[in-house]
Amino acid sequence: MKKEIYLFFSALILLSCSKKSSSLSQALEMAGDNRQELQSVLDSYSKNPSDSLKYKAAKFLIENMPGHNSERKLYGFNNAFDSISNYPMNDYRKAVFRKILDSVSKETDAGKPELLPDIKIINSKHLTNNIDLAFNAWNKIPKQKRATFDDFCDFILPYKNGDEPISEDSRKKLASKYSWVHKFLNEGKSLRFVVDSITREFDYQIIIEIRTFYPQTLSINEVEKSRFGLCDDGVNYFVNVFRSLGIISARDMTPHWGNHSALGHSWLYVKYGDEEYSTDVVGNIDLKKEYAGESLPKVMRKTYSLQQKHDYAPNLKDVTTEYVPTANISIDKLFNTSSSKPVLCVFDVNDQWKAVTFGQNNKDSFSFSDVGVNVLYMAASFDNNTVVPINYPFFIDASKKIHFFKPDESKFNSSVILRKYGLSSPKNRRIIDWMENLNQGVFQGSNTEDFKNAVTLHELSNFSSTHIHTVKVKSPKKFKYVRFYSNKKETYLSLLAFYNSNGEQLDGEVIKVNNRKFKWENGAFDNDPLSFSGGKDFSLGFNFSKPQAIESISFQVRNDNNHINTGEKYELFYWKKGWVTLGKQTAKDTMLYYKTPKNSLLWLKNHTTGKEEHIFYIDKKNKQRWLGFDN
């Protein structure tokens, strides 16, 4: 799933706050015409000694406000969110919302959202109300479970979480809507139970392309009405829910996976007393367990306060060690390059190398702390917005051993290339599951619609391929009805075809049972390898106009289409201070054959179709090995 993540290296306005005593006055100076609004908040809490802690909280918010922004609300879309809020919660809701947004976007010249500095726009009433409500919620938490004041300031007090437009009264509304949470927690219900109850009831769903229709971070009210958006939108909503209840909550994120072609991810972090829970917006998954062994280069936690340790990501706190084993590394400056800004990069199919963290510049090396293992990195200098390598790419394995990929061009492997992307990882085994679930499925023929006394034409076993397969049918009988039946498993097919003895594809009336509602009406019959039909206890087949003898059956499991396809054009590269081509080939089979330098890092591009590609190497048995993936 694609998500907009908090931009790890965003250009934020930074305070020169090496001297803490001047940070408040500098912030007030930056407020300009809005200074009086902020000053009045400080004044209101300075009069009564009992408000001393609230004064300290107000000072914290104002001192750290530079660099926090709100998108100016885009007008013209209000009716879209109002309309979908009244639509029933069913399988058609997402498609309906897409159509509504598409229609409105064609009539509205939205443009790009304008970022407004919070320090110049936030008013005293909203800020004071937010502080009072935050303290009320914090004080409702039993003392033994209550957050420290420092954690309160960063993870409960803030008036919002990201760049979303400010929603008036959202804290009050959320606290009222979810007031039952305190009762559940006081009764001894676990934090996970409460969080999963909220996410399950809310039923938030991802629309990856939503920014093409509505190019703005969704406000809390818009998420409440639609229950759609990107991961960041959903996380923002749930973070605000728990903060309104006085419970520590934040957005955790990775700027880029070590085993994804182009994406990072963000998710929800919640803490109550000694209990912690990290989960996606759909809930019901413990990500700290799920991500164990995953290829995670860095995990950062969004804070409100400026993190002085991270000059280029001032509102992100490094929490990588909470999720995966890490290592402290030092990489020699092997190449003669400028080295003003040390960065550590991972592979990205669009940018080739994407910086995920900054490091320390030593005399002859760059050093980086707390970097995730099971990741392929490249150390580089970041000059003029360009990544310039200082050494060969290297992999840190689970034992924290480092292996550099310096190609030996005097020795070559005879390499068989089967795919351009890894099959699975600890967090994502879906392709493996799709293949395995097809086993025990059967192709059947019958002369009755209910398939009583059906004849088994072929039963699947030991199946493990994403390519199109064709099987011969031995039965000479003719059948009015044919089908694939999943034997009560959840299975998906991207292609299904039956042929007679002349090699002609047979057609008839489609029959299907328990076929889930996808955007494709007949995904197994549209010649698109990425569309599919399927579901649980699923069957799919044909009712012929007259009985037919079946000579063969072709089928393909739901897949990512990242295997080698006959007739498509490919090009293989290896890395030597940059990507060097090993030549282009048009696939004549489902395998490609190349001579590759030993110990080289490889990248296969498909020039015909597709966007998902990742780097790999050839092992001692001349097999592809995917870095950061399961092999």
Describe it:
- This is Transglutaminase domain-containing protein.
- This protein has 631 residues and is an alpha+beta fold.
- The chain has four domains: 20-290, no CATH class; 318-404; 412-422 and 563-626; 430-557, no CATH class.
- Strands 11, 12, 15, 16, 17 and 18 form a six-stranded antiparallel β-sheet that branches. It has a five-stranded antiparallel β-sheet with strand order 7-6-5-8-9. A five-stranded antiparallel β-sheet has the order 21-20-23-27-25, with no helix packed on it.
- α2 (35-46) packs antiparallel against α3 (52-63), α2 (35-46) packs across α7 (124-140) and α4 runs antiparallel to α5.
- It is globular.
Short structural summary:
It comes from Flavobacterium procerum. 24% of the residues lie in helices and 30% in strands.
Tell me the number of structural domains: 4
Number of helices: 16
Mean pLDDT: 92
Major sheet description:
6 strands, antiparallel
Number of E-state strands: 34
**Class of secondary structure makeup:** alpha+beta
How far apart are the termini?
22 Å
Q: Oligomerization state of this entry?
A: single chain
Q: What would you call the shape?
A: globular
Q: What is the radius of gyration?
A: 28 Å
Residue runs with pLDDT of under 50 for 5 or more positions: 1-21
Strand content: 25-35%
Q: In percent, how helical is the residue content?
A: 10-25%
Protein name: Transglutaminase domain-containing protein
Any key phrases for this structure?
six-stranded antiparallel beta sheet; alpha+beta; 631 residues
List the topology elements:
Blueprint lengths: L22 H9 L3 H12 L5 H12 L5 E3 L6 H8 L7 H15 L7 E3 H4 L2 H17 L8 H7 L14 H8 L2 H7 L4 H12 L2 E2 L3 H4 L6 H7 L1 E2 L1 H14 L3 E7 L10 E8 L2 E5 L7 H4 L9 E3 L13 E3 L7 E7 L9 E7 L3 E7 L1 E2 L3 E8 L2 E9 L2 E4 L4 E3 L5 E3 L3 E10 L12 H9 L3 E5 L8 E5 L9 E4 L5 E8 L4 E10 L9 E5 L19 E4 L2 E11 L2 E6 L11 E7 L3 E8 L5 E7 L3 E5 L8 E4 L5 E3 L5
Parallel strand pairs: 3-4
Antiparallel strand pairs: 1-2, 5-6, 5-8, 6-7, 8-9, 10-14, 11-12, 11-15, 13-14, 15-16, 15-17, 17-18, 19-31, 20-21, 20-23, 22-28, 23-27, 24-26, 24-28, 25-27, 29-30, 29-32, 32-33, 33-34
